[in-house]
Design a protein that fits this description.
This protein has 3 helices and 11 strands; from the N terminus they run H-E-E-E-E-E-E-H-H-E-E-E-E-E. By secondary structure, it is mostly beta strands. Strands 6-5-4-3-2-1-11-10-9-8-7 form an 11-stranded antiparallel sheet.
Length: 186
């Protein structure tokens, strides 16, 4: 009994409080720039990792910082028209022609890094094979390029709310993103 109450108290302590007020969001189709802070977990048959992530995406490319759960810098990734570069905390540097190739080179996984900017804001790239919408007209589930993408939670009930949680899966690869802070602009 006491163990059950302790578990309940611990879970209640982890519950997220609703935000006081959320900014009005631009139309999803018009978003060209976003910043997010959150947590990411990646699991495959070979490995598993979880980290904090800060991501700036705009027309010029992507700037992604990955930190340990305690805040230590693990990696910094920059991708733009000239290519993609990654520097690790151990000062190792990697470069590739694009962000997808860099992911294959460094992680040994075919991660959908080039598609992620659309998927994390709840937007299809137009090449989907299946899509389901929630009652508010937002994407709830999407299948694109062999990936299954789910949106179990948005930041609010508003139609233009951005996803709070995004789950991606293909074969043995499972990626989970939990967004704690969004900024988005056309």
């Amino acid at each position: 009994m006491r163990l059950g109450m302790l578990a309940g108290a611990m879970l209640a302590g982890c519950a997220a409080l609703p935000p006081e007020s959320l900014p009005e969001r631009p139309q999803r189709a018009s978003i060209q720039r976003f910043e997010l802070d959150g947590r990411i977990a990646v699991r495959s048959a070979q490995a598993a990792m979880s980290a904090s992530i800060s991501w700036l995406h705009d027309a010029g490319g992507d700037d992604i910082s990955v930190r340990s759960p305690l805040g230590a810098m693990l990696a910094h990734l920059v991708g733009d028209a000239s290519g993609a570069r990654l520097e690790t905390a151990q000062r190792e540097s990697f470069a590739a022609a694009d962000i997808g190739e860099l992911g294959r080179q460094v992680f040994g996984l075919d991660l959908p890094l080039a598609r992620m900017p659309d998927w994390v804001i709840g937007r299809s790239g137009g090449t989907h094979t299946a899509v389901e919408f929630d009652a508010r007209g937002r994407i709830a589930r999407l299948t694109e390029q062999g990936w299954s993408i789910e949106y179990p939670e948005y930041e609010s009930d508003a139609q233009q709310a951005l996803p709070r949680r995004v789950f991606l899966r293909r074969g043995e690869i499972d990626v989970r993103l939990a967004v704690e802070r969004w900024e988005a602009a056309p």
